[in-house]
Design goal:
Mean pLDDT: 95
Structural class: alpha+beta
Radius of gyration: 15 Å
Number of domains: 1
CATH topology: Thiol Ester Dehydrase, Chain A
CATH architecture: Roll
Strand order of the largest sheet: 1-2-4-5-6-3
Order of helices and strands: HHEEHEEEE
Distance between the termini: 21 Å
Largest sheet: 6 strands, antiparallel
Helix content: 10-25%
CATH superfamily: Hotdog Thioesterase
Shape: globular
Number of helices: 3
Length: 141
Amino acid sequence: MQVDLDTLRGFFRSAPFMADLGVEPTAVEPGRVSTQLVIARRHCQHTGVVHAGVIAALADHTMGAAAQTTALEDHWVLTVEFKTSLLRGASGERLECEAWVLKPGRQVSFTEAEVYAVDGGERRLVAKASGTMAITKAEQP
């Protein structure tokens, strides 16, 4: 599926949870998507670092979007399973996520992502994720 950055931004805005978190796509090419999230107090847990659920959701949706770029025009991508490994606490100005398709398929695609915390000029890897995405025919209303 051909997806440009404006189309991808609409895709993220139409997902209420992603819109509520404030996740924004920043780049797209076939099989690759980058996103960012400006860190706010509401994204953090009691110790001041970004909640693991925020990081996992960012990685999951970005991986799904990367898989969507390789899916057929009338198909949707749904997460079958994903794993997130948290490498260190995330804090700073924003999170950046880069996701890519390892192996595209007609029924299943395999994806990976890395999440970075950015503070000033420093960019630190805070999480790695992998996901299996089901490719399903879009239902007609």
